[in-house]
Design goal:
4 helices, 4 strands
């Protein structure tokens, strides 16, 4: 399966964080290339949105797509709703967090499926 047509333009994670703050509800799943440089997520890590609406896909089509993603060296990060939740949770604990603090909270959630507690 050619996954290129299912992915949008890549942007740094910092831009996706800003979009989650300014344009809530975009609901993209974000993926990144599995490379040595991306072993540790950074604000500059390039993420691509999955732009195709997969709600009408069969389970087999979803499995084929996910296998193609992995076989082409991509990994799922989170969906933008999850990142919005992480940002909201962090902002409830601290006013005006820095981009680096939000990155830390996103990584914490990604690795543990739990919100960071300050």
């Amino acid at each position: 399966m050619d996954i290129g047509s299912f992915l949008g333009e890549s942007e740094p994670l910092k831009n996706w964080i800003n979009k989650c703050i300014a344009q809530r509800g975009l609901q993209y799943w974000l993926v990144y290339q599995d490379t040595v440089e991306n072993e540790v997520l950074q604000l500059a890590t390039l993420l691509l949105p999955i732009v195709d609406d997969m709600r009408d896909w069969s389970n087999e089509e979803i499995d084929e797509f996910e296998d193609s993603l992995i076989n082409n060296g991509y990994c799922y990060l989170l969906n933008m709703d999850q990142i919005e939740d992480v940002i909201d949770n962090y902002k409830m604990q601290k006013d005006n967090p820095t981009d680096e603090e939000l990155l830390e909270a996103i990584i914490f959630y990604y690795e543990r499926d739990a919100f960071i507690i300050l």
